[in-house]
Amino acid sequence: MKTLENITPRICQKYNSCSAPVCPFDTSWPSIKHLPGEPVCKWLRESMKPGSEAILSHALTGEIAGKVAEVRDALLCRKGALKYSLRRAEKQGRKVQLIKRKEIV
Q1: Distances in Å between the alpha carbon of 4 and those of 50, 72, 80?
Q2: 101 occurs within a structural domain
Q3: Contact, 4 vs 67, CB < 8 A?
Q4: Using CA atoms, how far apart are residues 36 and 82, in angstroms rounded to an integer?
Q5: Number of folded domains in the chain?
Q6: What is the reported pLDDT for 99?
Q7: What is the pLDDT of residue 95?
Q8: Residue 72 near residue 23 (C-beta atoms within 8 A)
Q9: CA 1 to CA 47: how far, in whole Å?
Q10: Is the model's pLDDT at 100 over the cut of 60?
Q11: Confidence tier at 72 by pLDDT (50, 70, 90)
Q12: What is the DSSP letter of 11?
């Protein structure tokens, strides 16, 4: 099992195809700027929906799901396009019904 100190963007199931500039698994996320129209991490979007704790805990491990929630909460304290996109995702339907957990070694 990976510890929080060893988490990198490569643990994400979408790592190879994701183009979101702000990744909750990247240690440099606080310094990354998100511009209007840029993609938003699927985990951050999913974390905004009611009942997301159960979905994220199933799809990820508890520690990693907690990291997504921690980053989400910090991002919601900011101003800008990413906060607006996350608030909009909160009102949209769930895009992911059930995600298979990726085994993290």
Answers
A1: 25, 16, 27
A2: no
A3: yes
A4: 7
A5: 1
A6: 47
A7: 63
A8: no
A9: 22
A10: no
A11: very high
A12: G
State how far the Cα of 25 lies from the Cα of 64, in Å rounded to an integer: 8
User: Any idea which residue has 């995600």 for tokens?
Assistant: 99
Residue 48 corresponds to which tokens in the numbers above? 């905004």
Tell me how crowded residue 1 is: count the other CB atoms within 10 A of its CB.
Answer: 9
* DSSP sequence for 17-70: T---S--TTSTTGGG----TT----HHHHHHTSTTHHHHHHHHS-HHHHHHHHH
Domain that holds residue 18: 4-91
Alpha-carbon distance of 46 to 18, in angstroms, equals 15
102 lies in some domain:
no
Nearest alpha-carbon partner for 30 in 74, 91, 70, 64: 74
